[in-house]
Amino acid sequence: MSTPYMIDWAITNRCNLECLHCRGMAADELDGKLLLQVAEQIPSLKPRWVIIEGGEVLLCGKLFEVIEILRSNDVKVYLISNGMLLDRPTARRLAALDVNLMISIDGADEKSYEKTRKGASFERLKQSVALAAEYRILDSCPVTIGKHNHRQIGRLFRFVREIGYKKVAILGLKPCKDYKELALNGAEYESLFFSIIQHQKTYGLDVYVDEPFFKPFLREHNIEFSADSENGIIVPEVSRCIFGEYMFIETNGDVKPCTFAPVVIGNAGERPVSEIWANMRNSEFIKELTDLSNRESQCSECGYLSECGGCRSRTFALTGSWRASDPSCPLKGVRPSES
After folding, report:
1. How far is CA 77 from CA 134, 277, 299, in A?
2. Coil vs helix vs strand at 125
3. Cβ 315 vs Cβ 326: under 8 Å
4. Preceding omega of 154 cis (within 30 degrees of 0)
5. CA angle at residue 333 from 327 to 339, to 5 degrees?
6. Pairing of the two strands 77-81 and 247-249
7. Is the pTM here over 0.85, yes or no?
8. Which of 86, 195, 237, 278 stands the most exposed, by the fewest C-beta atoms within 10 Å?
9. Backbone dihedral region for residue 310 (phi beyond 0: left; psi -120 to 50: alpha; all else: beta)
10. What is the DSSP letter of 17?
């Protein structure tokens, strides 16, 4: 049986903020006993890494027990937090467990940051990033980009470098409340990508962009990248849409083929994750969806289809079709040989 590329686990629905781009949380949570059972099962799947998120992860009472189980089985762990609750004892415990902490930033100044993340403190954010850097647990800076902030790239890059980040992870906004009004279109993505390329050079940060059409865009415009860049553009070995190639575990235990897909394969509180993963890989729906010959319109004609595929969850949210072309793609069916 193949193994998941990675596992994304929303461990709690509790949160101390109200963010513009929140995808929404399941109403229920797995109890503490089930959380630990799931953590015990995950290493058998041999994912490359596990991302633990929320809600706000630091509100989960079983967080450190879960991390200890994963780390004792040599599973690499990334933690996504808003940083508001990080203190020195917590940073020390995370450092002892060799956890990679990502503190999200979605605005380049106090006004835009606190507007996007209602209830957050810009000053507390800066303190938390400094604390994480002090304990050497600070990883990349996740920045979710939509119509509300896509013109801030230069200021965002300058700000995150000033407060101690060396790597930025740009995350295209995915399905959430008011998504059709907030999602970027193809022209806006084109402008965004050129801006990222320009400001990466200016500020000397490592930059990763979580969009399946970013690598084709770089190829189309002859922009250099590498899989493990320092002070450059990072494109991992697998950068296409990985719908169905990883597992997302919702707070109530529901397992999905994508964090943002309205599709449930099973529940980790009811069945072993290995069984759910096997069912996902054998699912006719997943097989049909990941068969690139089923793509329609411009995607089907694109010379970059095999290394992109378009974001399936975004496409479904915006068009109501799983097979349609990604409406946000800036390439629109281009053929490399014709460029």
Report:
1. 19, 20, 34
2. helix
3. yes
4. no
5. 135
6. unpaired
7. yes
8. 237
9. left
10. -
